[in-house]
Amino acid sequence: MGVGASLVVMGDFTVEPSTANVLDTDYNEISGLYACGNVMGGRFLGDYPVVLAGTSHGTCLCYGRLAGYQAAANAKGAQA
Description:
The N and C termini lie far apart (48 Å). This protein has a domain at 21-75. The longest helix is centred in the C-terminal third of the chain and has 19 residues, at 57-75. Helix content is 24%, strand content 11%. By secondary structure, the protein is an alpha+beta fold. It has one helix at 57-75; strands at residues 21-23, 29-34. The protein has a two-stranded antiparallel sheet with strand order 1-2. It comes from Campylobacter concisus. InterPro entries: FAD/NAD-bd_sf (IPR036188). This is FAD-dependent oxidoreductase 2 FAD binding domain-containing protein.
């Protein structure tokens, strides 16, 4: 029996690029909710390029770092 896998979200979580915060439908940041890598929207129009190994690693690392930085600042009660 075959097993299907989802490699990417083709819809999207709209993300504030400087904080990695997920935005609501009115483009307001949702406090404490972050996205990085393949769950970020707007990166692939209609097809996920599986022939390009590592395509998502850069955005995952970049926005994962931003999200971690923001989450740590929020936990301390400060703004990064």
